[in-house]
Amino acid sequence: MPASLVPAAGTVSFYQGVTYQGLARSVLFIRPSMLPSNKSPAIVLLHGQGGTPEDIANNARAGTLAAQMGYWVILPPAINGQWNINPANASPTADDVGFLKTLIQTATQQYPIDPTRVSMAGMSDGGFMATRVACEQSQLLASVVAVAAEMLSPMAKVCRPSHPVPMIFVMGTADPIVPYNGSSLFIGALQTFNAWASYGACNPKQTSTQKLPVTLNDGTSVTLQHNAACGSHGEVDLYSVVNGGHAWPGGAKMNGTNGIISANLNTTNMIGNFAKLWTNKSTN
Length: 284
Prior knowledge:
Rossmann fold, ten-stranded mixed beta sheet, alpha/beta
């Protein structure tokens, strides 16, 4: 039985149908109860394979982004629970890049959302989808965070962002679904970091590495690789969750979890804080 949205104090939630390619999808919106006089930032949050908007909202505690940080959180559903993440698909089941572009344009036209401050995040399949949008429609996004997701090998071969997008990748070193060191399907966490640093013309000699403080002895730790010495707008970060599984660090406990959900990184707060740093210069 599909999960229901867990209400968050200080928020208003509602659904709106967004039609693309003749198909209407019911999109979940979570916004602050009190709206400012100026336009608000937004985060488009994408669920994993087989998931739902309610799943990722509950897991990531998306209401925090709305109630405490002032974001509109926009949570669309994939068709049959699966995003079309692979540009090499000869007969794609859905043009999800086109759908997400339409969704962003619709939301910024109908609601008091600042189109220069629309970011995207996703977990697993949703993280791969967010990365594909950053590759193909970078002009739409102020920043992107991909959790438990690297770059799909076919995507890495064709990714040509029209302008750099500030990027964060969050990967568990013990992820059994998306191997940290890559596979025939994925190019690996470090290779993904280096690829996005190259897209942003970042100086590879300026990459810094630091271990973050361990706040809970749950068997995990977090190492951050960071590069902001980029030729233009942007930065690239890789949070490596040592011993972390296929999970949203700091998220809610979920049935069927694949490995440890680290408590040593609050991914939701990190996404909100990261998005605050950036506006989308291409839409100014």
